[in-house]
Specification:
five-stranded mixed beta sheet; alpha+beta; binds zinc ion; single chain; 30 helices; eight-stranded mixed beta sheet; globular; 34 strands
């Protein structure tokens, strides 16, 4: 799944949103980071943890979880006891656990079973399904009625039992099961035995009870008849609508199952490790068409006006990858070299916007078949643009689905960043056809195995297939984004235990995606591209159609040697004589698993402190965490593949730091040394003594002596160090003065990412005078670069994105030459009825200026209503949200929440943009609080969207009063939100903002009086 829809496609838009208001500025693809429950305790060998708010589950290995705490009365009846036979085991386990569990969260109490909805005991008390019933094949028939907005279906599942049991537990959520039967031995002719059905809604499970135990190893088929309503949210089998050019509203139905919503469309064993094949049949009216994972085999008329489409049987796959759509979409197709039919589907009025994505999909699919050396196993790949879509895209096997803005490209109106976003999203979903679909994580704790990889493969594939996009120039800015949340105490290891749907949802965050991608990039840089590639190919081949854990990946990598190395029987590699660098391999051997475990099994990242004494370079690593002056003694250690260059040599030197401190000796003394070359490592660096002065001198002298990524990383690291008091704010600000000469996108964006949040914090404290001075300083710093921007669409993608952002910044900050030009453009555009074709790169600035008058705002909104271009709509939407008129802002919140004239899928973006607006943020915060329950219903507790809204409305607060408000509100939510990680994140961030302002504000005020600023 692509969760970064909010920024992925409209990177600049959202990024720009920051100008108007953010602390956690995100760069391009920045996702506000959602996040989840406190996971600290989960790392202990045994622990108690709240599940569903009030139920404490004790977890050891899978299958031996016990309930030992206060259980929600809804779920558990205290009168039901564990079977006698299990009691001695339970008691002894409890005794052991009580010695390690915290007394407050865990009390000794006999485990009990929940009550089914009819009051009978429900025979299963865990979130995870039992492992002894194994599904092999599903035969699904689903009839969607787009008039009544209901659906009915029959699910037949072929199963076997691995131990005798008369109880079959599977998932079902919001479905009305009318009948269930069991057929012995498979096949239609077998006698059917009725099954008793019990439902346990809180755990989204049903139990089917047979009259006698199933025989081990014998095939059985369960047949379930059921019905349901099309979901009004964005998951399960849900309703979507769109308006035609003529104004007619049409309905369609589509699916979004990841992670736990297949159970909302058909009863199933809804866990990724229960892979099976699927035969899908969809009933529909003749005016519609149905598409699914596999190609259509035949269509039969089953009644007058009712057609049943039969799709080919799928390969073995997880339930969350099943998909079907009933709609009146149109499509355009092309074949790949290897004969895979690729089609893009969209609503009829937008079918002329599919060509870019179609070509990109063909190119990328061919690339992956070649790179992975495994043919794409299905005969077709459909890409469908869905008018209502919560995230950015979803990788359903053979039928990937997208938000319209993530797939449709209007050659006239789409922006450079939109082209980039579409390419990256398609690349991501197609990478999943291997990473995720073919080889799947065993459980959601290792979500990163597919999401980190898909994110990383975006970079690997697009840099080859679309070199003109130059992704290498900015892709790894996302490591800074990941570090932003990973530097908080509320972060979690990449691989983290999760259990219930809300916790699973919370895994779709920056840590799984971006940190995952960054540590893979670090590994690739360390092993070399070829060795890395052969490792992942080996992994994919070995585990095709299977499920994996973290360690399976590292084991596949561990037996790979970098080019030119030889492998020893112990699995380690050593370098051949011809290799000059990387002496650590020769000395230490190459233990990928041990090294990578330090990055995936512990949260956070290291701060490396460098002290140069003559030719000796002293290195020290410690855990970097915000909010404390000195890093706590956590004992956390990483195997850090350090790289560096010096004033004497630009050849990359390497050193694997495995201990807390170490020393290396340079061949000669140097003037400066720069670690983390090209930003390939997931760590930050502090240079002791005059180390920073030398680097600042270098930047101010010949900044091009180091790469733009290196310059960006220096800017980032300097401000990270300010947060923990290792570097003064004055030194960090002095370093940014070199930006006067900067022209590259990464360092400029990173500079803005650091500087803009400062005035955003001031806005929240109403410090007008200094705030105004600071804003003026920022514009003076970049004035040369702003003045050099042409008002055209010329140049590379990165040049164009830079232009778009700079002009927007200049106009929003009321830099007069920019404002005047934008006003002229807006007037001409309005006079031409909005039909004048503006250069895409300047449109955002023009709309932002135009929206500042009420008349301009109304005109923009009228164009929003009729526009068919996602880019244009997003640009207008953003401009509407930066209005200074509170009534307009409130209207936007109300309407997008309601969903009639502005789609509800836009609400999270609108709420966040208004939450960043100096006039609007109190409205956004109020709206979030008043509508919390409905928001959670629509967007799901724990989802990335909810986290995006929570942090978007609150994490720029910088006063104690606001902090108290935030704490009070979220703690009042109890199990309906107080436990979310994003809440913890935002509280930590606000506390950090307050500390930061208290410590640095006066210094910034004094620094702004500095004489050298006048020379800018
Ligand atoms: Zn994904």
């Amino acid at each position: 799944m692509w969760v970064e829809h909010l920024r992925g496609v409209r990177g600049p838009l959202v990024w720009v949103g920051q100008f108007c208001a953010s602390v956690s500025l995100f760069f391009l693809f920045r996702v506000c980071s959602p996040t989840s429950l406190q996971t600290e305790t989960l790392n202990k060998p045994a622990f108690c943890r709240a599940v569903l708010g009030s139920c404490f589950v004790l977890r050891r290995a899978r299958g031996s979880r016990l309930i030992c705490g206060a259980i929600s009365s809804k779920m558990i009846s205290p009168s039901i006891k564990w079977p006698l036979a299990t009691r001695p085991l339970l008691l002894s386990t409890l005794l052991i656990l009580l010695t390690v569990a915290t007394p407050s969260s865990c009390q000794s109490r006999e485990p009990t079973f929940p009550k089914a909805s009819n009051g009978a005991p429900f025979p299963w008390n865990k979130m995870r399904l039992p492992e002894h019933i194994i599904p092999a094949h599903y035969d699904l028939m689903i009839h969607a009625n787009l008039t009544t907005l209901t659906f009915g279906g029959t699910t037949q599942i072929e199963i076997t039992a691995s131990k005798p049991t008369s109880t079959i537990i599977l998932h079902s959520h919001h479905l009305q099961v009318s009948k269930a039967t069991l057929r012995k031995g498979g096949g239609e002719r077998q006698a059917e035995e009725p099954l008793r059905v019990l439902e346990n809604p809180p755990q989204e499970q049903i139990a089917l009870l047979a009259s006698e135990p199933l025989v081990v190893g014998l095939p059985y088929t369960i047949v379930i008849d059921y019905a349901g309503n099309l979901s009004e949210s964005f998951h399960g089998f849900y309703k979507s609508t769109y308006r035609t050019k003529e104004g007619e509203v049409r309905v369609l139905a589509s699916t979004q199952f990841e992670p736990t919503a297949a159970r909302m469309a058909f009863p199933c064993f809804d866990e990724p490790a229960f892979k099976a094949s699927f035969l899908i049949k969809i009933r529909r009216e003749p005016r519609h068409l149905a598409i699914s994972n596999m190609p259509l085999v035949k269509s039969v008329t089953v009644a007058e006006g009712l057609i049943e489409d039969h799709f080919d049987v799928t390969v073995k796959m997880s339930t969350y990858l099943v998909a079907f759509i009933v709609s009146d979409f149109k499509s355009v197709s092309k074949m790949t070299k290897s004969g895979v039919k690729v089609s893009v589907y969209a609503v009829p009025d937008k079918i002329n916007q599919v060509d870019y994505a179609l070509d990109a999909a063909v190119t990328l699919l061919e690339f992956y078949e070649d790179y992975f050396n495994i043919p794409y196993p299905l005969p077709k790949q459909d890409l469908a643009a869905i008018p209502d879509f919560q995230s950015g895209a979803m990788e359903n096997w053979g039928l990937t689905t997208y938000r319209e803005s993530s797939l449709l490209f209007d050659a006239e109106k789409s922006s450079a960043s939109s082209k980039l976003g579409i390419t990256m999203t398609v690349s991501h979903e197609l990478a999943h056809q291997w990473f995720g679909n073919l080889v799947t994580m065993e459980w959601w704790n290792d979500l990163w195995l597919k999401e980190g990889f898909a994110k990383f493969m975006e970079f690997v594939s697009v840099s080859v297939t679309h070199p003109e996009l130059k992704v290498e120039e900015y892709f790894f800015g996302k490591c800074f984004k990941a570090m932003e949340v990973d530097a908080l105490n509320s972060s979690h290891p990449v691989s983290t235990p999760v259990e219930n749907p809300a916790q699973i949802q919370e895994m779709f965050d920056d840590v799984s995606y971006d940190k995952g991608a960054c540590i893979l990039n670090m590994l690739r840089d360390y092993l070399g591209a070829d060795a890395f590639k052969s490792g992942i190919v080996k992994y994919l081949q070995k585990y095709s159609y299977k499920n994996t854990k973290n360690e399976d990946l590292w084991n596949s990598m561990a037996s790979i040697c970098p080019t030119g190395d030889t492998q020893h029987t112990d699995g380690f590699c050593s370098r051949g004589e011809h290799s000059s660098s990387t002496a650590h391999w020769r000395r230490e051997g190459l233990d990928v698993k041990t090294m990578m475990n330090t990055w995936t099994l512990q949260k956070g990242f290291p701060l490396i402190t460098i002290t140069v004494r003559g030719r000796n370079v002293h290195m020290k690593q410690e855990y970097y965490v915000k909010g404390v002056a000195d890093a706590p003694e956590t004992g956390l250690l990483w195997h850090v593949p350090l790289t560096f260059i010096t004033s004497k040599s630009d050849a990359v030197q390497r050193f694997l730091l495995k201990t807390r401190t170490d020393v290396l000796i340079l061949p000669e003394e140097v003037e400066w040394i720069k670690f983390n070359v090209g930003m390939n490592g997931y760590y930050i660096v502090h240079y002791e003594d005059d180390g920073w002065d030398s680097l600042t001198g270098l930047l101010k002298g010949t900044h091009t002596a180091i790469s733009s990524n290196d310059r960006a990383s220096l800017i980032n690291n300097a401000f990270q160090l300010v947060s923990i008091g290792k570097l003064s704010i004055e030194k960090a600000l002095d370093l940014t003065l070199y930006l006067k000469q900067e022209t590259e996108i990464m360092p400029v964006f990173q500079g803005l990412n650091e500087l803009i949040p400062m005035y955003k914090l001031m806005e929240k404290r109403e410090m007008n005078e200094v705030e105004t001075q600071f804003k003026a300083f920022l514009i003076r710093l970049l004035q040369g670069l702003i003045d050099r921007q042409t008002w055209t669409d010329e140049g590379s993608v990165s040049e164009r994105m830079l232009r778009s952002q700079l002009l927007l910044l200049a106009c929003v900050r009321k830099y007069q030459p920019c404002v005047q030009k934008a006003e002229d453009y807006f007037r001409q555009w309005q006079e031409a009825g909005g039909n004048l074709s503006l250069p895409n790169d300047v449109t955002l600035a023009v709309f932002a200026v135009g929206a500042q008058t009420l008349e301009g705002w109304d005109f923009l909104y009228s164009k929003y209503q009729s526009s068919l271009s996602s880019t244009e709509k997003n640009q207008i939407e953003f401009a509407l949200c930066i209005s200074q008129n509170k009534e307009k802002l409130q209207w936007l919140l109300d309407q997008s929440f309601k969903g009639d004239v502005i789609k509800t899928q836009e609400f999270p973006d609108i709420l966040r943009a208004i939450g960043r607006n100096p006039v609007g943020y109190p409205l956004a915060w109020q709206f979030l609080r008043e509508n919390w329950n409905k928001l959670v219903q629509k967007f799901e507790l724990g989802s990335n969207s909810i986290a995006y809204m929570v942090t978007g409305t609150t994490n720029q607060f910088s006063t104690r009063a606001r902090l108290e408000e935030v704490k009070e509100f979220f703690s009042s939510l109890k199990e309906n939100g107080s436990q979310l990680r994003c809440v913890q994140q935002t509280i930590e961030t606000i506390e950090e903002n307050i500390r930061w302002m208290d410590k640095n504000f006066d210094k910034i005020k004094a620094w702004l009086q500095n004489e050298q600023l006048n020379l800018l």
